[in-house]
Structure formats: C-alpha cells, structure tokens
C-alpha cells in the first residue's frame, strides 16, 4: 500500500533491536485518515470472505480493527492483556510474549463474543516474530470460529513470523512488508 509505505519512509524511525517507531502516525498519535485508508484496503483484500468479526489485541491493534470493522460493518473485538492470574471460565485465553517488552501476557476474549458461527479476520499493526498472531489464532481455534486470515499494517519480513504463519496455510496480507531496515534506510518488498 503505497500511502503507508510513503508515510513510513517519511515519518518512521528505525531504532536498535529491529524496532521501527511509527509513533507519530500509527501507534501513539494516530492519523485517522490513514487508518480509514488501511481499513478500506483490508476490506478490498478480504471482501469476498463472509467476515463477521474483526479480532485484534490491545492496545495498538484496536484502532486498525475499528477501521476495518467499519468497512465490513461488523463488530471489532480485542483480546485483553490480563495482568492477573485470576481468569474466570467464561473466556478463551492464550499466552503471548510481547516483542517489545519480552513480558508474557495471558490474553483473554470473552466467550460471549466469539463462537463457532463466526468468520474472523485478525488485524494487527505489526508482524514480527508472530507471537501476537499465534495467540489470537489460538483463541479463534478455541472458539471453533473460522479464521478468514490476518491483515497486518507493517510486516517486518526479515523476521520469522510471516513465514511461520503462512506455512500453517493461513492467509496473511500485509500492507507494507519491510525486507531490510537500518540506519541507511528502509527497503520494502515489491508487492
Ligand atoms: P510479534 O508478536 O509478531 O513478534 O510482534 C508483534 C507485536 O509487537 C505487535 O503487536 C506490535 O505491537 C509489536 N511490535 C513488533 N515489532 C514492532 C516494531 O518494530 N515497532 C513497534 N512499534 N511495535 C512492534
């Protein structure tokens, strides 16, 4: 998605530890028009699927899930990062190690909001090693819903997550895939 790639080139900041900072438009301050366009692009890619729910993980996936869910005219649902060990039985849950902090969270989704009748599109801001997506995929599996695929804003193609999840036969559509990034710049995979 050229609009997103251009914005990453203009405002993204490459940090050490393979981190790309996009705080000024994607996951701290939010460019709502760009979010709208990302939502439309995800709809264009997945519109032939009977999506009933867009699922993400808090917090930075929420805005993108809302933008996509608006296009599909379905609810957005986000997995909560549970900070207590006290999980009641009415939730699906999975353990996720955070790429940015290294902390492992239990993510939870209420059983009220996901079930076998659902067709789920998973959305997130970044795909790095794939732990966040794996956790969300596990929650979809627990619910016996059908997973339609995953829509990602920025995939770091030099990390293992995208390959690992596609090898499971899951459709992953990333709007910008970075093949290389360092102090000299950012190289996108041609799409
Ligand atoms: P994964 O679980 O695929 O390793 O990492 C995905 C999650 O880590 C995303 O939800 C995102 O919040 C965070 N993340 C991974 N890489 C980056 C990065 O380069 N920059 C930022 N800002 N967040 C990242």
In short:
Helix content is 29%, strand content 35%. With 191 residues, the chain is of the alpha/beta class. The strands form 2 sheets. An 8-stranded mixed β-sheet has the order 5-6-4-3-7-8-9-10, with helices on both faces. The chain has a two-stranded antiparallel ribbon with strand order 1-2.
Which labels suit this protein?
single chain, alpha/beta, Rossmann fold, eight-stranded mixed sheet, binds guanosine-5'-monophosphate
Description:
- By secondary structure, the protein is α/β, with parallel strands linked by helices.
- The chain has one domain: 3-Layer(aba) Sandwich (Rossmann fold), CATH 3.40.50.2020.
- The chain has five helices and ten strands.
- The strands form two sheets. The protein has an eight-stranded mixed sheet, sandwiched between helices. It has a two-stranded antiparallel ribbon with strand order 1-2.
- Helix 4 (131-143) links the parallel strand 7 (119-127) and strand 8.
- Helix 2 packs across helix 3.
- Bound molecules: guanosine-5'-monophosphate.
- Guanosine-5'-monophosphate binds next to strand 2, strand 7 and helix 4.
């Amino acid at each position: 998605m050229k609009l997103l790639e251009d914005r990453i080139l203009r405002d993204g900041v490459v940090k050490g530890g393979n981190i790309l900072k996009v705080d000024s438009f994607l996951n701290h301050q939010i460019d709502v028009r760009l979010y709208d366009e990302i939502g439309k692009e995800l709809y264009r890619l997945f519109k032939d699927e009977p999506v009933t729910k867009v699922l993400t993980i808090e917090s930075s996936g929420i805005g993108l899930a809302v933008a996509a869910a608006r296009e599909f005219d379905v609810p957005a649902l986000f997995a909560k990062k549970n900070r207590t060990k006290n999980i009641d039985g009415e939730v699906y849950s999975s353990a996720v190690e955070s790429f940015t902090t290294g902390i492992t969270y239990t993510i939870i989704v209420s059983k009220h909001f996901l079930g076998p009748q659902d067709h789920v599109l998973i959305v997130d801001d970044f795909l790095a090693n794939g732990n966040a997506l794996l956790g969300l995929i596990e929650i979809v599996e627990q619910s016996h819903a059908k997973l339609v695929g995953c829509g990602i804003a920025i995939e770091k193609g030099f990390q293992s997550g995208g390959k690992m999840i596609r090898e499971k036969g899951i459709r992953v559509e990333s709007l910008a895939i970075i093949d290389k990034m360092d102090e000299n710049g950012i190289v996108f995979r041609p799409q």
